[in-house]
Amino acid sequence: MKIALLQFAPDVGTVQANIKKADQLLQQSKLPLDLDWLILPEMAFSVGYPERTTDPTPINYNSTVTVSPGGTILANYRKSFLYYTDETWAAEPSDRFSITTLGSLGPVIQGICMDINPYRFTAPWSDYEFATAALQPAPFPQGPNANMSLGQRPSEYPNPHNPVTLPTPGGKNDHESGGGTASNNPLIVLSMAWLSYLTPSEIAGESSSPDVATVAYWVERFQPIVERSKQEPGKPWYVVLSNRCGIEKSVCYAGSSTVVKIESGDVTLFETCGRGEEKIIVIDLDSAPKFSVKSGR
Which PROSITE patterns match (predicted)? Predict the structure, then answer.
């Protein structure tokens, strides 16, 4: 399975300019034609995707949407744990994290940034709410399109050459993709706008180096999965973390987008973006990770 992460620094309010920048990065990167999924950061285009319902009394959510090459909406996820800035405009959904089966990608659990933290920073650290949800049994696919590729409508075979600007899986059939990860553990995917404690000068001085403290924190928030992997050797887990970079007023973002592999208690990283880099990385989950990470225990 091949996954691309687009890390960039959008400017607040300049939606069309941000879309143009993302398109330019995509065109320059020469994405493989057999790409399965392109993941963007949280609020990648500055004001979107803030979902607004069509209820008589509309409700706002901080959401991500998964779109096929043909423009079909395949999944809509609403952020469950709101950061304090989200609480000024968005509501918590009634349902929290869940695993869904998304065609050829198999079981997937999606989250947004704050979702991996303790609820409102007041829940016990050891609750690990998001990671614990990922450990629940995956649902059995149901319905007429349960075995359909993510990039495929009924009676439609998508064109993998289509340009994309939203998180978009590619157009392979199930027998070509293998139906998710080899272990059939849920693929964990997070869109993020994660802040850094580094100063602007520290980020600019080593923009191509990841924010190590941030990556270590992300890994620690998946400690229950590290422990489970010790009990089930040879069944890897993959955590996809697509973060934004850049500086917004006095706020610095951590960048450092990466994919984490957790297997038999070992934690490794594939290619990782720098803390200040605007770039796209493509990760083949069948390839060997590049870095070893010591987990929290």
Answer: CN_HYDROLASE
* Torsion (CA) 46, 49, 50, 52 in degrees, nearest 10: 140
Strand partners of residue 158? none
d(CA 194, CA 117): 11
Give the start-end residues of each E strand in the chain. 2-7, 37-39, 50-52, 60-67, 73-78, 99-101, 107-112, 187-192, 237-243, 247-248, 251-252, 258-263, 266-269, 279-284, 291-293
The reported pLDDT for the residue numbered 263 is 96
Q: Give CA–CA dist 108/141, Å, rounded.
A: 12
pLDDT of 157 reads: 25
C-alpha to C-alpha distance for 179 and 138, rounded to whole angstroms? 13
CA angle at residue 115 from 124 to 240, to 5 degrees? 120
Half-sphere exposure of 213 (CA within 13 A, CB side): 8
- What whole-number distance in Å separates Cα of residue 48 and Cα of residue 274? 24
- Going by DSSP bridges, is the β-strand pair 50-52/60-67 parallel, antiparallel, or unpaired? antiparallel
Q: Which CB contacts under 8 angstroms, 24+ apart, belong to 49-58?
A: 50/89, 50/90, 51/76, 51/78
Q: With a cut of 50, which residues of the chain have pLDDT below it?
A: 142-178
| Tokens 């720098």 -> residue | 274
pTM of the model: 0.86
Q: 3-state class of 252 per DSSP? A: strand
Sorted by sequence, the CB contacts under 8 Å of residue 157 that are 6+ apart come out as 171, 173
Whose structure tokens read 């090459």?
69
